[in-house]
Amino acid sequence: MDIRKVMKPRSIAVVGVSDRKGSFGNYAAQNALRGKLGEKVYFVHPKRQELLGKKCYPCISDLPEAVDCVVLCTPSSTIIPLMEEAGKKGIGGAVVFASGFSEERDEAGKKLEKRLIEVAKTYDMAVIGPNCLGLMNNVDQVMMWGLDTKFEFNDNTGVGVVGQSGFIIKHLSEAGFGMSYMASTGNGNIVTIEDVLLFYAQEDAVSVIAVYLEGIKKPEIFENALKTAAEKRKPFIVLKSGRSKKGAAATASHTGNLAGDSATYDAIFEKFGVVVAEDFADLIALTRMFTVLKGTLAEKGTLASLNLSGGETAICADICEKYGLVHPDFDANVKKAVMELLPPFATPNNPLDATTALMYNVEGNKKIVKALLESDEIGIITLGINIGLGKHLVVENQINAACAAVEESSNKKPIFAVSSFEGTRNRDYLEQLERHGIVMPSGGEKAYRQIAQLVKFSQYDPSKCTLSFAYPSVDNAAKQTVALSEYDSKEAIKEAGITISKQAVVTTKEELKTVLEKEFSFPVVLKVSSADILHKTDAGGVKLSIQSQQEALQAFDEIMVACKNYMPDAVIDGVLVQEMAPKGIEIIIGISNDALFGPMVLVGLGGVFVEIFKDVALYPAPMNKDEALGMLKKLKAYKLLTGYRGSKPADVDALAETIVKISDYAAKHRDTLKELDLNPVFVYEEGRGLSVVDALLIQYQS
Amino acid sequence: MDIRKVMKPRSIAVVGVSDRKGSFGNYAAQNALRGKLGEKVYFVHPKRQELLGKKCYPCISDLPEAVDCVVLCTPSSTIIPLMEEAGKKGIGGAVVFASGFSEERDEAGKKLEKRLIEVAKTYDMAVIGPNCLGLMNNVDQVMMWGLDTKFEFNDNTGVGVVGQSGFIIKHLSEAGFGMSYMASTGNGNIVTIEDVLLFYAQEDAVSVIAVYLEGIKKPEIFENALKTAAEKRKPFIVLKSGRSKKGAAATASHTGNLAGDSATYDAIFEKFGVVVAEDFADLIALTRMFTVLKGTLAEKGTLASLNLSGGETAICADICEKYGLVHPDFDANVKKAVMELLPPFATPNNPLDATTALMYNVEGNKKIVKALLESDEIGIITLGINIGLGKHLVVENQINAACAAVEESSNKKPIFAVSSFEGTRNRDYLEQLERHGIVMPSGGEKAYRQIAQLVKFSQYDPSKCTLSFAYPSVDNAAKQTVALSEYDSKEAIKEAGITISKQAVVTTKEELKTVLEKEFSFPVVLKVSSADILHKTDAGGVKLSIQSQQEALQAFDEIMVACKNYMPDAVIDGVLVQEMAPKGIEIIIGISNDALFGPMVLVGLGGVFVEIFKDVALYPAPMNKDEALGMLKKLKAYKLLTGYRGSKPADVDALAETIVKISDYAAKHRDTLKELDLNPVFVYEEGRGLSVVDALLIQYQS
To answer: For residue range A630-671, what is the model confidence (pLDDT) as tens digits?
Structure first.
C-alpha cells in the first residue's frame, strides 16, 4: 500500500455526502470543499444530483477518474462493498469514519474488520480507520475530516500529529497553532499509527512529531519511525496511555489496542530520545514549545531566570531544583547589566528577583536579556511574565524588552515567558512572543518540567545509541516453553562470550572424583541437577564451600538422599559441580522477551534493592557499552558500585561489557528466547571482573 | 498588641495621602474610600486641606479620635516619628508600606527595623509591614492596600489569605472568587504571618486558610494556629517556598525570612493535616476547591469518572492510579443507569468512556450522576467537561446534567468538572458549576493531584494526632555542645522508660572480673570508654561476642594496648561492658532538635536504606503510638518489618512504643537536647521486643 494516497491525495471522492447537519457525510463534504483540491474533489451519492453546489456521481465506479482516496461517510454495513468497488476502480486510499468494527464487544464487528483488512490487502489500499475522524493535510490543504472543526488552513509549522483518539486530534487542531498534518487513526489495523509516524519521520514538511499513543502493532515500522526521527533530530513527543490497569482496559475497549507494558514503552522511548508528555495539556505545550523553537536547542542545561517578585523567584528556584535545572552564578557582564539597573539593595542572584525596578524600564530589562543571550554560562533563559487574557502595561514592557533583545542579539537560545498562573493567554502577546521564537509554556510548575524535557532532548545524542530493538520475527504467543537446567543455561551463555566458572554434571561418585582430580580447584559447590526440583535449596540439593574431595563425596551422598526424600518421583540427572565464586556485589541481569519489542534487559542490585525499592533499570536489547553504563548510572544503588563508605570501586566496566554481551545474545535469539536470568552475578573490585553464579534460560519450543 | 486593630479596624487614618498616580498614598487613599467605614476613614496630609473630596488633617495628633489603625504611605525615613505620634495618640494598629528596612543588605535598614519593633512594643501597637502591600477585609469592607486592585467587595467566601509576597496576595485577590481577608505581611516582625494565621484560625468568618509561606518566627503562635485550624477542620493550604538552597537564598533577600528546613516544615504540615500546594496556580486552585465545597468532604476516597472519549478515559485512569485514586466497579444501580443510555457495545466500566452517547442526552447524563451521588461505593465524582473560554453545546449539556443531578439529589459529594486542557474557563459556566458546589480544578493531571489532596484532607483525623510540637523555650544557637559517652547516653534514655542491656564501666581487670561474675551473662561486648576516641572500631577498641571470663580479660588488655597505640594522649575512662544483643532488624532512631520546631524524630532501617535510598520518615515530637506507627508505615522498607519472604513479622509494636518514649523524652528535654541517635536498634520477632545497641546523646551546655 502507498500511504501517500491517504496522507497526500491529489484527488478525493467523498462517498455518502449529506445535507443532514451533524452527519459524517455533511461535515466531510463541507470540509473537503475547504481545501485546495478544487475540481479534484468529487462527491458520490446514489440519488442526489448535486450537494453544496457540487455535482454528485451515483457511485464510485462512475467517477471520471481513479481518485487517490475515497472518504467513506456511510455506516459499517456498506463499507465492504464500497471498498471493493473502489478497489476495482484502482483507487489506492480510503478513509472510513464508521464505527461498528473491532472496537465492539461482539464477534460481528471483529469479523467485519477482518473482512475490511482482507479487501484492503486484495486491492493494496491504504485505509485510515474505521472508527476514526479522518485526517487533515495543511501542506497540500486537503481535509478529510468527519466532524466540525475550527481549524483553518494556515502557514505550515511543520507539526505532524497523529493519535488513537479523535478527541485529542480535534483539540490539538484547534489549539491555535498551525499544524502540517493531523490524523486520527481509529482502529488502525491497515494504516497503523506507526505507518503515519514513519510517514512524518520521513516527510520533509514535518519537523516535529506529536502522538497520542495507546499501542502499536508493527514494531518494525515503529522502530523505523523512531530511528528516522532520532537521526533527523525531529522532536518526537508522545502521550502514552494505558499505563495503568484501568487505563489499559479503557484503551482495549476504545480502539481494541493492547496498551502493552508501560515500562517497556518508556525504555523504548528512552533509547530513541522520545519526549514523554504527562497529559493532553502537556502534549500540546511540548509540541508548541518545539514548534516555536524551530530547532533552537539548549547548548547547555543551565538556566537564567528573571522574575519581578521575591515570591516568584523563590518558587522558581524550588521547582527548578526539583527538576534538576541548575541556575549558575551570573558572569561579570550579566552582573554589570543587572547592577546598573537594580536598586542598590538588590542582589544579582540567579534566579534574579528583579524587584519592581524592571517593570517600567524596558531598556534596562532588554540589556539584561541581551547580556544573558551572550553569556556562555547560560543555556536557557526564563522570564517571569504573567500573561493573562487582557492587556497589562508591565507585561507589555517585559514582552517588548525580551523581543527587542532577541532582535538585537545574534545569539539564539531558548527563551521562555513563564507565568505563575494557569489561564488562556492574550493572543496578541502570544503571537508577538512566538514570532520572536519565545516560548510560552504551561503555567506554574509544569513550565519547568517542560523546560527540563527540552534540556533532556537537547542533550540526547542519537549517534551514541543503538537505534534499534530486536522485535521477534515470529509469533511465540501460543508456544510451549522449556526451562533449561543451570548447566545448560550456563553453557548457552558461553556462546555470548561470557566466562562462567568451570562446571560439570556427574552421575556417580567415581565421576565426581575424576573431575575433581582433573579439572577443579577447591572450594566447589554441588547442586542437584533435576528439571523436576525447582527449589534446590529447600530440597537439600545444594552444598556450598566444599573444601576437599572427601567433603565432596559425602555431600554427593547427602544431596542424593535428601532429594529423593524431598521428591521421590523426581528425575535426577546427577549433580552439578562448580568452582565456587567468591562473594562480590550481588547483581541481577534479567531478560524478558517482549512479544512486540523483543528482549528487554533489566539490571539491578540483588535482594531488597530490586524487591523492595524496585531500583531497576530497563532498556531494550541490543545496546552498546555507553548504553549499558547509562543503565547502571540510572540505579539509585549505583553509588554502591563506585566505592561506598571506603570500599573499593567495583568492576563497572566488566559489568557493562557483560550486559552488552547478554543483550547481544538475547537480540540474536529473539525468536526463541523467552527469559534469561543471571541471578546473582557477583561483581568484584575494579579490574577483577565478575562471576555469573546462577543462570536460568527459558526458551520457546519450536 | 491587639491584632484586631489592624485586621478589623473600626476607624482608620491614611497618612501621606497623595494625588500622584502610582504612589502608595494615592492608591491607599482611593482604596480606603471604597470600603464601608465612611466617616471613620480619615486622611492626614501636612499641607493639603482635602483630597478626593475628603478633609485632610495636618497630622496624626490632630485627628478627632484615636483611630484603630493608621496606614502609613510615607517613606522609611518618616516612619519612626509617625509611629511615635500614633502611639502617643493611643492608636493600636499600623500598616507600613515603605521598604528600606531589614530586607536591605546594609545595616541601616536592619537598625531602622529594630527601632520600629521597639516603638511598636512601647506603644503596644500591631503593625503590618514594613515592605508590604497591606490588607483587605471583605467582612467589614475595609481596604488598606497600597496598590491598584481589581478586587471588588463581594459576598464573603470565608477564605482568609496571607502571604510573605504582595505579588501572590495581589493575584489571589484578583483570581475571581471572593475572599474574606487578605494580608501581605512584608517583613512581618511585629504582626507576623503566624499572628495572622492564628487570627484566621480563630475567626468564625474564616473557613478556609490559604498562605504563601517563606518562614515563621513565633513557633508557639504557629502551633496554636495549626492546632486551632485542625480542630475546627478548617482547610489550611500552604505554598512553602525556600525549599531549595537557591530558593532559601531568595526568601532571605526578599523579606529577611529564614526558610528553615523543608523536610521539617513538611513533617509539621503532616501532623496538622495541612494541604500542601506545589505552585501559585495550585494554591489558588486548592483554595478555590475547598471554598466551593463549603465543607463537603469525601466520605470515601473512591472515584467515579465519566468521560466522553476513550482517550480521556484512559488518561484519567492512568493519572488516578499514579495519585493512588481508586475507581471501584459501579454498583448495580449505576450500571443500570449507564446501560440504559449507552449503546450496546459500551462497557459500564469505571472510569467510564461514555462515548458520544451522552453528549446530547442531558436527561440520561443526569440520571447517571444521580445514581453516582446515591452510590455507597463512590466518594467523589469527576466529570470530563472541557470548558474553554467560549460557549459550547456539549459542554452546556454536561453542565446542565450535573447541576440538575445535584438539585434533585439529597446526597452531597464532592463533584469535579475536569478539563483535559489548560485555559481560562467561561465565567458563566464556572459560576453555574460553583453555585451548585461543583469544583473546576486545574486542567489535566493537576486536577487529580488536587482531588488526591482532598481525599487526604478528608481522611485526616485531628483527634488521632498530638496537635503540638515541642519548640524550645530558650535560644541555644550560641551555646557549646557536649557529646555524652555511650554509657551515659544509655543511662539517660533509661529515664525515657527504655530498657537497655546491662552495662558497666570498669577500669581494671579485677573490676571486670567482679562485674562479670556478679551481674553479666555471656556473650558480652567490650568497648573502650573515652570521649577522645570517636571511632572506637578503628582504634581497635571494640570486642564482640565474648563468651567467657578468660576471653574478656584478654580482650580488656588488647583494647587498652590498641587504643593507647591508636591515640597515645587519649583520656581513657575505662572499658564499657555490655551484654551482647542478638542480631535483629537494624533500625535507626534519630532526634534532631530544630531551633524553631523542637525535636524532630527520624526513623529508618539501617545502612543503605537510609544512606542510599533516603528511606526515612520524619515527624515532630511528641507523638502517640498511632503516629509512630504511621511513621513506620511510610517507609518503603516497612515490608521488611511485616514478614518479608517468609520471615516472621518483627515487633513493630515494641518499636512504635520505643519511638513514642524517645519522642516524649526529647520533647521533655527540648531546651537542652541537641541530638540523640539510637543506632542501631535491633528489632526482634513479634513479641520479642528490641535492643538499643548504641546510643549517642548530644546536649547543649548551659
So the answer is: 999 999 999 999 987 778 999 999 999 999 999 999 999 999
Q: Does the distance separating the beta carbons of A255 and B353 come in below 8 Å?
A: no
Indicate whether B51 and B109 sit together in one domain. Answer: yes
Domain end: B134, B163, B182, which one? B134
Q: Specify whether A307 is located in the same domain as A428.
A: yes
Q: What is the pLDDT of residues A375-416, one digit of tens each?
A: 999 999 999 999 999 999 999 999 999 999 999 999 999 999
DSSP B507: S
Contact B281 A420 (CB under 8 A): yes
Interface contact flag, A251 B167, Cβ < 8 Å: no
Instruction: Kindly list the residues from chain A whose CB atom is less than 8 angstroms away from the CB atom of residue B318.
Output: 241-244, 247
Asked if the structure places residue A469 within a domain, the reply is: no
Q: Residue written as cell 468527519?
A: A146
Q: Which residues of chain A lie closer than 8 angstroms to B163, CB-CB?
A: 311
Which CATH number is B612's domain given? 3.30.470.20
Rounded distance between C-alpha atoms, residue A462 and residue A270, angstroms: 11
B330 neighbors B304 (Cβ within 8 angstroms): yes
- What element of type H or E holds A529? strand A524-529
One-character DSSP codes across A301-369:
SBEEEEESSHHHHHHHHHHHHHTT-B-PPPPHHHHHHHHHHS-TT----SSEE-TTTTSS-HHHHHHHH
Assigned C-alpha cell, A576 = 552439578
Residues in B 183-242 with any Cβ partner in A closer than 8 A:
212, 214, 239, 241-242
Which of B246, B315, B349 is nearest residue A279 as measured by Cβ atoms?
Answer: B315
Q: What confidence tens digit (pLDDT) does each residue in A528-581 have?
A: 998 888 788 889 999 999 999 999 999 999 999 999 999 999 999 999 999 999
Residues 247-276 of A with CB under 8 A from B: 247-251, 253-255, 259
Which residue of chain A has the CA closest to B104?
A: A345
A283, A229: one domain: yes
Chain A closest CA to B354's CA: distance in Å?
11
In B, which residues are within 8 Å of A327 by CB distance?
246
- Which of residues A527, A553, A579 is at a domain's end? A579
Any domain includes A393: yes
Residue B493 lies in a domain: no
Inform me whether the pLDDT recorded for A259 exceeds 60. Answer: no
At B153-180, the pLDDT tens digits run 988 899 999 999 888 888 888 877 779 9
In a domain, B323, yes or no: yes
Reported confidence tier of residue B254, pLDDT bands at 50, 70, 90? low
Of A168, A245, A421, the CB nearest to B280: A421
Alpha helices in A519-573, H assignment, sequence order: 549-566
Per the DSSP assignment, residues forming a β-bridge with A692 are A681
Examine the domain organization and report whether A306 and A435 are in the same domain: yes
Find where cell 553464579 sits: A693
Instruction: Assess whether B318 and B405 both reside in one domain.
Output: yes
Number of domains in chain B: 5
> Is the same domain home to A222 and A364?
no
Domain of residue A412: give its range.
Answer: 297-463
Both B650 and B559 in one domain: the answer is no
H-state helical runs in A590-687: 608-611, 625-634, 652-668
Dig out the grid coordinates for B251 from the structure.
526568601
Q: Which residues lie across from A586 on neighbouring strands? A: A682
- CATH code at position B167: 3.40.50.261
The rounded distance, in Å, linking the Cα atoms of B549 and B511 is 12
Domain at A517, CATH number: 3.30.1490.20
CB contact (8 A) between residue B311 and residue A212: yes
Co-location of B645 and B594 in the same domain: yes
